[in-house]
């Protein structure tokens, strides 16, 4: 049986040198995505600084970035608060993602761009499997699902479209993770992705 690289491993590697602010941002966003911080939770920069073991300056930079993305708000003289999810914004981001992915699939089907067949083979190795070989690990399936969507767009060969798609994907990751709480949703994801790949 041939081993095929996982799509997330064969996407073009981007070397990123992360600052302490980037690391604090990633950790805080992960805390919100994994519901370690939930809407309504209040905290101070000092709380976060102590927990993450970094100074307040990178924490403040991370929080301002999360504020711009609509995840937290600053409270006058009383720290920060995690905001409720803005479902209208998520809906708009989903619409944008649909436009990008539809265009990518049209390019893949018409051959108007050079198609990255290795990416498509890697996707097939994960999603075109018998039901008995499907993963039931919701975290793993959520990661594979995200990699599927990103790889599909990347395979179409338009680097700028793939970059914008990755940004949208990053912004909707929190809400997407909620899709994979129950097994029927995981099964439906396998079925849907298999249909797309076969087409």
State the gist of this model.
With 199 residues, this protein is mainly α. Helices cover 63% and strands 5% of the residues. A hairpin with a 3-residue loop joins strand 2 and strand 3.
Which features would summarize this protein structure in a list?
three-stranded antiparallel β-sheet, 199 residues, 3 strands, mainly alpha, Arc Repressor Mutant, subunit A
Layout of strands and helices, then pairs:
Blueprint lengths: L6 H4 L9 H14 L8 E2 L1 H8 L3 H13 L3 E4 L3 E4 L4 H24 L6 H11 L10 H18 L3 H18 L6 H16 L1
Antiparallel strand pairs: 1-3, 2-3
Helix pairs in contact: 2-4, 3-4, 5-7, 5-8, 6-7, 6-9, 7-8, 7-9
Structural features, described:
The chain has 199 residues and is mainly alpha-helical. The protein folds into two domains: 20-82, Winged helix-like DNA-binding domain superfamily/Winged helix DNA-binding domain (Arc Repressor Mutant, subunit A); 87-198, no CATH class. It has helices at 7-10, 20-33, 45-52, 56-68, 87-110, 117-127, 138-155, 159-176, 183-198, and strands spanning 42-43, 72-75, 79-82.
């Amino acid at each position: 049986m041939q081993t095929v690289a996982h799509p997330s491993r064969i996407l073009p590697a981007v070397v990123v040198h992360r600052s302490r602010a980037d690391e604090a941002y990633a950790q805080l966003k992960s805390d919100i995505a994994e519901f370690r911080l939930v809407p309504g939770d209040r905290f101070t920069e000092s709380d976060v600084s102590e927990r993450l073991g970094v100074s307040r300056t990178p924490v403040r930079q991370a929080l301002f970035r999360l504020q711009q993305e609509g995840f937290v708000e600053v409270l006058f003289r009383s720290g920060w608060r995690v905001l409720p999810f803005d479902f209208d914004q998520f809906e708009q981001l989903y619409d944008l993602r649909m436009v990008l992915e539809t265009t990518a699939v049209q390019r893949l089907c018409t051959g108007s761009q050079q198609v990255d067949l290795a990416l498509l083979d890697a996707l097939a190795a994960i999603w075109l499997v018998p039901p008995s070989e499907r993963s039931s690990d919701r975290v793993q399936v959520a990661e594979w699902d995200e990699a599927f969507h990103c790889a599909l767009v990347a395979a179409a060969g338009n680097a700028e479209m793939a970059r914008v798609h990755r940004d949208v994907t990053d912004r909707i990751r929190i809400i997407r993770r909620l899709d994979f709480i129950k097994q029927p949703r995981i099964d439906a994801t396998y079925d849907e992705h298999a249909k797309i790949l076969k087409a």
